[in-house]
Amino acid sequence: MKKLRIRNIDQGAIMKLNKILKNAFLITVACLALSACATSKKSTGQMQGDVYTGTDTVEYLASGVPDRVFFATNESVLTTASRETLRKQAAWLRKNSKINIVLEGHADERGTREYNLALGERRANAAKDYLMTYGISSDRISVLSYGKERPVDSGSNPLAWSKNRRSVSVKAN
Amino acid sequence: MIRIFLIILFIITPIRAFALIEVDITRGNLNPLPIAVSPLSIDENSRKNFEKILKKKNIGSEISIVVERNLKTSGLFNPLSKDAFLQEPDIANLKPRFEDWNLIKAQALITGKVNFVDDKLRVEFRLWDVLAGKEMMALAFTTVPNNWRRVGHIITDKVYERLTGEKGYFDTRVIYVAEEGPKTRRIKKLAIMDQDGENNKFLTLGNELVLTPRFNPTSQMVTYLSYFRNLPRVYLLDIETGVQEVVGDFPGMTFAPRFSPDGKKIIMSFAKDGNSDIYTMDLENRIVEKITNHPSIDTSPSYSPDGKYICFNSDRSGYQQIYIMKKDGSNVKRISFGRGLYGTPVWSPRGDLIAFTKLHKGKFYIGVMRTDGSGERLLTENFYQEAPSWSPNGRVLIFYRETKTNDKGEGFSAKLWSIDLTGYNERLVNTPTDASDPSWSSLLSN
After folding, report:
1. What is the β-pairing status of strands B377-382 and A60-62?
2. Among residues B112, B104, B113, B114, which one has the least CA distance to residue B79?
3. Residue B398 domain flag
4. Largest CB tally within 10 Å, which of A71, B61, B316, B430?
């Protein structure tokens, strides 16, 4: 049983805010890296159905190996394009056998928080299953759902939502 | 700190069942009852003592302001402006001149007195029926001076109960998630405050993402989801000691926790290999039980107040719908059949209704239905809102609402709102930061 204490912040402890911000910095940097493209330029992406097909937010694990796949609303089915991306990831993972990955599953903001946590987990697992069929051992893949907590695009429109319905493969080591 | 000394010293007059004024809370109240809240009278010596301790010039009128704000927020009462009051507080408390109060159209009157006694705050108050010219209730409390706001809430609860016939919900707190920063990287902390937004306190530092806090029945413990070390798990937090611990040893994400009505179990979802099912864990013997077993997403479980049934959210039909089942997971029955998607079912503390979030044609609704799914009523519509939580008397829902951002993705905010079961009296709940995932405590004093 893990036990840890958390302190109450009372008036006097507001001074510790600096420290908090410093701790939050790491998360912030990670998120900035994810969202840099999304926020810096106006979207030129498109959608097929309501699945995002653009490259605005996509980063690369290695040259030619996109880091993410996108989903339709409420769906966790992999599209043809998603499968292609995941096959590239699998090939890259086979070549770099020491690298493990975390699959981060996400949902858009148009759903209730708890359901979206489950949906993010389902999406990341859809990607995981596909990688496994291409020979990547399950011990090298962990899954982390963020639900709708970490959008890449803060817009409230169908295009922004399509970018946020995603599973992102992140190097774990 | 949390504990209050509340001693009802004596009931000056026993409550009698006269046919005096009554407030009907079963329908939208378009004619709130005009009520006068006379500032509580205070002698000079007491006033000075409290001024020294509490840094408030006149604690008698401060308490009456708390009462007045509560009554106004309830939507059932219309507190009259003090400028119109003709009678001094001390005299009014002894024997109101009903003609004077009648003149300003007050139908009910609250008077009272504050004393500094042995370093304690002693408050007595009376509720009068102006038209009948009768005293309806008289009570006295003694507590530590720092509890002065709670005294105001308790007075409101007593008045509310006397006039509506139902328990109040004012001496309560709300635990919620305080939010700051841009939408793409929100910093979230657990926070707790009085029901009226006062005495706000942060309970976590914001180092890790925290979501969906919920009180246990005694409101001393909270269960919530934390991303501590990037492992989303259900935690338990003792509000008084600050001790926090992981609930159970699950090899994956646990989420959507709630307490059972007896406080002995936590019910939650556990997600593994793309499938979320509902589990319970007994907090005493740590025994884990699997309640649902279905390849769909089963989440957002909530017990009926008698603990015999569970309502939950599942997409086993293809889309998010509301289901109920027996506490052991048998007799699963879908109850939501309207158009759209349904989520976040929460069983009313009265047992008769289930509140939910509904998504239909791009709009989000907070609504209620009977436990068999009949009688669906939508209370409020917006761009985005979800996660209703019941007031302990089952008359009011608190939930959160998010705004639509502009073309540049700016202008995001999340706030707490409350609405009556009648669909009237929708109000913004003040929080120092943005806020979401509210959970209403039980009545702290009974």
Report:
1. unpaired
2. B104
3. yes
4. A71
CA angle B396, B398, B399 (to 5 degrees): 145
Query: Residue B203: closest CA among chain A residues belongs to which residue?
Result: A8
Q: Are B333 and B351 in contact (CB under 8 A)?
A: no
Nearest chain B residue to A35 by CA distance is B184
Beta carbons of B392 and B442 less than 8 angstroms apart: yes
Residues of chain B positioned with their CB less than 8 A from the CB of A110: 359, 362, 384
To which H or E segment does residue B94 belong?
helix B89-94
Half-sphere exposure of B281 (CA within 13 A, CB side): 19
Q: List chain A residues with CB under 8 Å of B243.
A: 3, 5
- Find the domain containing B402 and state its range: 173-440
pTM of the model: 0.88
Cα–Cα distance, A51 to A48 (Å, whole number) = 5
Reported ipTM: the value is: 0.92
- The stretches of chain A forming alpha helices (DSSP H) are 17-40, 80-95, 113-133, 158-164
Find the residue in B nearest to A9 (Cα).
Answer: B202
The CA distances from residue B428 to B338, B397, B398, B440, in Å, are 28, 12, 10, 15
In chain A, which stretches have pLDDT less than 50? 1-44
- Which residue did the predictor score with more confidence, A35 or B188? B188
Structural domains in chain A, CATH included, are: 13-39+46-171 (3.30.1330.60)
Contact B185, A150 (CB under 8 A): yes
Separation CA B188–CA B195 (nearest Å): 20
Chosen from B225, B229, B253, B254 to mutate, greatest number of chain A CBs within 10 A: B253
